[in-house]
Specification:
Helix content: 10-25%
CATH superfamily: Metallo-dependent phosphatases
Number of domains: 1
Radius of gyration: 19 Å
Strand content: 15-25%
Number of helices: 9
Number of strands: 14
Distance between the termini: 13 Å
Shape: globular
CATH topology: Purple Acid Phosphatase, chain A, domain 2
Order of helices and strands: HEEEEHEHEHHEEHHEHEEEEEH
Length: 336
């Protein structure tokens, strides 16, 4: 088998006309490329690209390996042949939510040569309930229009107050929220205020407006035990149900992930810190637990992604891994 040739080929899974098309590329560690299309031929969308970096989990102190990995991701984005119009950071700049970790992240991200937009993750928030994060990065939810597409960012890691009754210190509160399995804090979401804000934000948009949402956690119940969910995701999907082209992009899961719920096409982004294995649930697609060719390689399963928005609102999402592993498609004997 000519692996060099294989890495340039594609496996295509095509649905009915007007529905989403998935394109799996052997150039990426997992699926590589998605066409997340609900093409709207009459919609005026000028082609452009944006990129995403997420989940760097920076520690305190100098010259930690996660610092270098974030720097690698930034260099990767800066060296794209097609420059992105902006870069989204999808949450969890810090590991323990301390001001020095957030400041380190802000300094490193300043090396990006394009505009940065950012949302928080739970690791950024629960030492001081977002005070330091907001002081450095601004609002935790926002929206803007760019070349015919409406972008929405939300803070999806909010939980009801569980710490006051337990008389927890800020550090104890953060420790409770840092755990992958977080029974103490419970399931998180965006909360009523953001839901009301979202309703008003999209009220006057026409149904053929392409919508892209950014949240730290997925807007569907992937694996709530690890908070791979957003508890009010169903309400968000209902508010956005009138739109013909709705793409949700999230971090938190530290893995490439694809799903489709109603009119929502959802994708997960790789981290720059470490890759999580897929939880013990069957995935509809790609149908494998963890597509890592070399689990012994620390960089395998991490990287960035870029999204090319084409005329009509089609979105071509390309994962850009740190390590160049083969996808399982070729191992299964599937050919382009």
């Amino acid at each position: 088998m000519d692996h060099k040739k294989d890495r340039r080929e594609f496996l295509q899974l095509t649905g009915k006309a007007g529905l989403s098309t998935i394109v799996g590329s052997a150039a990426g560690i997992n699926l590589g490329v998605f066409d997340l299309a609900h093409a709207q031929p009459g919609k005026k969308v000028a082609p452009f690209r944006f990129a995403m970096i997420t989940d760097s989990h920076l520690y305190s102190g100098e010259d930690h390996k996660f610092d270098r990995q974030l720097e690698d991701a930034i260099e990767q984005v800066n060296n794209m042949a097609v420059k992105p119009d902006f870069v989204l950071y999808g949450g969890d700049v810090a590991q323990n939510g301390t001001e020095d970790q957030l400041a380190k992240g802000k300094k490193l991200l300043a090396a990006l040569d394009t505009k940065l937009v950012i949302i928080p993750g739970e690791h950024d928030w629960y030492v001081d309930m977002g005070a330091a994060w907001k002081g450095m990065f601004g609002q935790d939810h926002w929206s803007f229009d760019h070349k015919g597409v409406h972008f929405i960012g939300m803070n999806s890691i909010l939980v009801p107050d569980f710490w006051t009754a337990k008389q927890m210190s800020p550090r104890e509160r953060m420790a409770a929220m840092e755990m992958l399995e977080g029974p103490i804090g419970g399931l998180w979401g965006v909360g009523e205020k953001q839901l009301e804000w979202l309703k008003k934000d999209v009220a006057k948009l026409s149904p053929d407006t392409p919508i892209v949402t950014f949240t730290h956690s997925p807007l569907w119940d992937y694996y709530p035990r690890w908070n791979f969910q957003t508890v009010d995701g169903p309400q968000i999907r209902e508010i956005l149900s009138k739109f013909e082209n709705f793409t949700s992009i999230h971090g938190h899961v530290h893995q490439t992930l694809y799903n489709k719920v109603g009119n929502m096409t959802s994708i997960g982004a790789m981290s720059t810190s470490w890759p999580w294995p897929y939880p013990p649930v069957k995935l509809a697609y790609p149908g494998s637990q963890m597509n890592r060719a070399d689990p012994g390689n620390e960089a395998d399963g991490m990287g960035t992604l870029a999204v090319n928005v084409k005329a009509g609102g089609d979105k071509l999402v390309e994962y850009q891994p740190f390590a160049d592993s083969l996808t399982p498609f070729l191992k299964k004997g599937l050919k382009a």
